Amino acid sequence: MFCRYFCLFGLCLFLLTQRRCSLGHVSSSRSGDTTSLPGFANLTMGYNKYLRPYFGGQPVQIAMSLDIASISSVSESDMDYTATIYLRQRWTDPRLVFHGNKSFTLDARLVELLWVPDTYIVESKRSFLHDVTVGNRLIRLFSNGTILYALRITTTVACNMDLSKYPMDTQTCRLQLESWGYDENDVTFIWLRGNDSVHGIEKLRLSQYTVESYYTLVSKSQQETGSYPRLILQFELRRNVLYFILETYVPSTLLVMLSWVSFWITLDSVPARTCIGVTTVLSMTTLMIGSRSSLSKTNCFIKAIDVYLGICFSFIFGALVEYAVAHYSSSQKCAAKASQKGLASDPAKEMEEVNIANILNSSLTSYKQKITFSSIEISSDNSNCSDLTMKTREKIKCVLRNKIHKIIGYFTIQNPSNIDHYSKLLFPLFFMLVNVFYWAYYLYF
């Protein structure tokens, strides 16, 4: 009986010893894990990722920096640009302080266990994080509790453009970072090193643009729900105009010069001059349609290139109209000469003309005293306005009538061949003057 109780006591003692050894082994393994990952004991002992650092106290300061990897496209039709950026955010969380001077780069999947800012890109149309071969995120923990959180983002951002000076325009675009839910009482944003916080943008090579300048701003966004911190990167893009000069400006100018060739062709060469005029008009129309088709969604803008093409089209059309006027005047003059020769060769018609003239002269002489001033207004240009018997009002009207006749005489085409002679000088002169004003306005104003 005694032996039986003694055996049971020994078995219980053995089981208690094994239990204590296993608990001691688990405790030592946990202690070893805490030593190998300093500070991460806080993640399992009271750390709440849903509460920001300094919760209920001072706001968290988020310092940011950017690397612009590329700006792949700038779309005038959609008024946006697509950029790939490396966004780096730094803040201090006192709950993650540990002893030592080391920093640890952690697996990006651990971001799910930490509090991170709710930063978003203002005016972003489409954005995504790169995830090949793994999510392109970085978390680095420093001994003083500072966290570095880096992301690789490709985003398409709206950019309001003024295309009135296209293609000699300079566009100002922005990349704005703002807190979504935390207002300025909870979070503040700053640039880590001012303008030096942005890298890579000065090295970009774009197809149509050159980066003129860029600078950083710190601002606030006033919303109905509060005032939110905002960081702004503003940069200016100047369009490279050389392509458009070779593609549009030079061909349109050459078409205008081609239309002037018709001035050196005689008026009798109707097929040659008509062919040149119609061909240049159609070519210019095709060039105008081609230039507008590249910006189909921005046709509501009157752009600088549209103004220049309109000027060129006006000069080309004017050259065609000039030939029509000159040819019509020449044909009318030839018809008048032919009629005069016909009258001179027919004595009967000549006598008839003389008789009619004598009848009209006798009628005018008989009613000379009854002619009113209104009939005087349609008389010849050589009216004598120095008659002392005329009243002052009548003299003024007589002088004005003579001036009007002289002005009309200036515009009367006496010799149709002079039209081409003047056009050879006036068309190139006016075209050069218009070009001077055009380029001066759009380049310097």
TrEMBL record:
Q: Which family does it belong to?
A: Belongs to the ligand-gated ion channel (TC 1.A.9) family. Gamma-aminobutyric acid receptor (TC 1.A.9.5) subfamily. GABRP sub-subfamily.
- Topology of this chain in the membrane: Multi-pass membrane protein
Q: State the encoding gene.
A: Gabrp_0
Membrane-spanning parts: 241-263, 275-295, 307-325, 425-444
Record function comment:
Pi subunit of the heteropentameric ligand-gated chloride channel gated by gamma-aminobutyric acid (GABA). GABA-gated chloride channels, also named GABA(A) receptors (GABAAR), consist of five subunits arranged around a central pore and contain GABA active binding site(s) located at the alpha and beta subunit interfaces. When activated by GABA, GABAARs selectively allow the flow of chloride anions across the cell membrane down their electrochemical gradient. Pi-containing GABAARs are mostly located in peripheral tissues.
| Quaternary structure and interacting proteins, as annotated | Heteropentamer, formed by a combination of alpha (GABRA1-6), beta (GABRB1-3), gamma (GABRG1-3), delta (GABRD), epsilon (GABRE), rho (GABRR1-3), pi (GABRP) and theta (GABRQ) chains, each subunit exhibiting distinct physiological and pharmacological properties.
Q: Cross-referenced Pfam families, in alphabetical order? A: Neur_chan_LBD, Neur_chan_memb
PROSITE patterns xrefs: NEUROTR_ION_CHANNEL
Task: Identify the Gene3D superfamilies for this entry.
Answer: Neurotransmitter-gated ion-channel ligand-binding domain, Neurotransmitter-gated ion-channel transmembrane domain
Q: Which NCBIfam families match?
A: LIC
Q: What is its main location?
A: membrane
Q: Which SUPFAM superfamilies match?
A: Neurotransmitter-gated ion-channel transmembrane pore (SSF90112), Nicotinic receptor ligand binding domain-like (SSF63712)
Q: Per its record, how is this protein called by name?
A: Gamma-aminobutyric acid receptor subunit pi
> Domain Neurotransmitter-gated ion-channel transmembrane: where?
248-371
